[in-house]
Amino acid sequence: MRQYWTIPTLPLAVYREVVAHLRQVEGVAAGLLPQTTPDFDPKLSQVGGLWFEVPDNAPVDHQQRLNTILEYYSDRAGQPWQPLEA
Question: d(Cα 6, Cα 81) in Å, to the nearest integer?
């Protein structure tokens, strides 16, 4: 199942780092979402968020590892991840 998440003010470089870390978990696919805001706002990220997909047969510790990665970046950003609709 594919999940979509955002921290609206997270910089592009950090999003790329998060995606790289998520992809290090075996079997996980991840990528960036395009920015959908029509007007440029320097306070917002250059991307709309990220997505990742965990295989149905993935061990429970995979999801725990993904949660640890996301929590780390949420703590550093000082903001929680917000779910996005598909």
Answer: 5
| Residue 37 neighbours by CB under 8 Å, 6+ apart | 44, 48
Find out whether 34 and 4 touch, Cβ atoms under 8 Å: no
Token duo for residue 18: 């998060």
Return d(Cα 69, Cα 43) in angstroms, integer. 24
Does the structure show a pLDDT above 90 at 52? Answer: yes
pTM over 0.85: yes
Helix, strand or coil, per DSSP, at residue 28: coil
Degrees (nearest 5) of the Cα angle 51, 63, 60? 145
Q: What is the rounded CA–CA span in Å between residue 48 and residue 33? A: 5
